[in-house]
Design a protein that fits this description.
Strand order of the largest sheet: 3-2-1-4-5-7-6-8
CATH class: Alpha Beta
Bound molecules: zinc ion
CATH architecture: 3-Layer(aba) Sandwich
Radius of gyration: 19 Å
Low-confidence stretches: none
Number of strands: 8
Mean pLDDT: 93
Largest sheet: 8 strands, mixed
Strand content: 5-15%
Length: 296
C-alpha cells in the first residue's frame, strides 16, 4: 500500500496540469511506488470552445487528458453522478447528487492530502462558476467524509457496520480567475518537474492553441507555435506569479493554501511530506494552533 496518497479534485481537463502536476511529479520521483495520486475532473469539458461542437470538444478534451496522463503517468477519472452522467461544464451546481459523488470518490481513495480550488472571499474578484462549485462541494462534504450514512441513500452500504474513513488534509490550489484574492501560504519549488509539466499541459491543444488565446485567458494571449514556445509562455506565467509572491523567479513554484476543512494539518507532517517546501512556518504554526483549539 502507498505510503502517501494525494488526490486533486478540480473542475476541468487541464486544471490539474496548471495547479498541482508539479508536486505530484516530485512525489512520484521521490517516492516511486510509495506514492499514489489520483485526479478527479468534475465536468464534461464540452463548453469551452468557439468553433467546435460541444460533443467534439468534450471528446477532444478527454483524449488530450489521456495523452497528458500517459506522459505524466498519473491516474484520472471523470466524476460521475449516481445516474452515470458527468456534470455539465459551466453549469456545475452543488446539488446533493454532486456532493454525494464527491464524498464517494474521497472515501473510496482515502487520500492523505486533497487539493481543490479555493473558496472566494472577495466579492469584487472574478470567478469561474465550476471552480467555485468544486471548492464549495469539497468544503461541504469535508466533515461528511467520516459521516458514513451521509449519502447511503445514494450509495447504499451496511449501515450497521461502518468502518472509520481517513479524512485528508485539504489544500486549496492557486486560482488564476481570482487574481490578487489568492491567499497562499505553501510554496513548492517544482523547477525540476517543470519540463514534464510543460509537456503534459501542451497535450491540451484545443485549449492552449485554440480556446485560451481566443478567450484571452490570463497569460495565454497568443497561440504557441510549438512546445518550445509553449515552454516560454508557461515560464513567463510562473515568473509573474512567483514575482508577485516574492519568490525566486529563476525557479518555478506551485502555490497552495492549507485549510482546516478536513483534518487539521500538522506543520511537522507537512514539512516532512511536501518536497522542496517554502513557507512561513511561524505564521502557519500560529494558524494551525488557532484551528486546533477546542470550541468552548
Ligand atoms: Zn478550470
Amino acid at each position: 500500500m502507498a505510503k502517501l496518497k494525494a488526490m486533486v479534485i478540480h473542475a476541468h481537463f487541464d486544471d490539474y496540469e496548471f495547479c498541482a502536476s508539479g508536486i505530484f511529479e516530485l512525489w512520484k520521483r521521490q517516492l516511486g511506488d510509495d506514492f499514489q495520486g489520483r485526479v478527479i475532473i468534475c465536468t464534461d469539458g464540452k463548453a469551452g470552445h468557439q468553433f467546435r461542437t460541444r460533443d467534439e470538444t468534450g471528446a477532444m478534451r478527454l483524449a488530450e487528458m489521456e495523452a497528458s496522463a500517459k506522459i505524466g503517468g498519473f491516474e484520472f477519472k471523470s466524476l460521475r453522478l449516481r445516474d452515470g452522467n458527468i456534470p455539465r461544464e459551466a453549469c456545475l451546481e452543488c446539488t446533493t447528487e454532486f456532493m454525494a459523488a464527491l464524498w464517494k470518490e474521497v472515501r473510496d481513495f482515502e487520500p492523505d492530502y486533497l487539493f481543490c480550488p479555493p473558496m472566494i472571499t472577495d466579492p469584487y474578484v472574478g470567478i469561474h462558476n465550476d471552480h467555485v462549485k468544486v471548492a464549495e462541494g469539497v468544503r461541504r462534504i469535508a466533515y461528511m467524509i467520516n459521516v458514513p450514512h451521509a449519502y447511503t441513500p445514494e450509495y447504499p452500504a451496511d449501515e450497521t457496520n461502518s468502518p472509520l474513513c481517513k479524512v485528508p488534509v485539504i489544500l486549496n490550489c492557486y486560482d488564476s480567475y481570482m487574481k490578487s484574492a489568492n491567499d497562499l501560504d505553501v510554496f513548492v519549488d517544482v523547477t525540476e518537474a517543470f519540463d514534464k509539466m510543460v509537456e503534459m499541459s501542451y497535450c491540451h491543444q484545443s485549449q492552449i492553441v485554440e480556446w485560451l488565446p481566443w478567450v484571452a485567458s490570463p497569460g495565454i494571449l497568443h497561440p504557441p507555435k510549438d512546445l518550445d514556445e509553449w515552454r516560454e509562455i508557461l515560464r513567463e506565467r510562473f515568473y509573474k506569479r512567483d514575482a508577485a509572491f516574492g519568490l525566486d523567479t529563476a525557479k518555478q513554484h506551485e502555490v497552495f493554501t492549507l485549510t482546516a476543512w478536513g483534518t487539521v494539518p500538522n506543520i511537522k507532517d507537512v514539512s516532512r511530506d511536501f518536497p522542496n517546501l517554502t513557507c512561513n512556518e511561524a505564521a502557519l504554526a500560529q494558524a494551525i494552533a488557532a484551528w486546533s483549539n477546542e470550541a468552548v
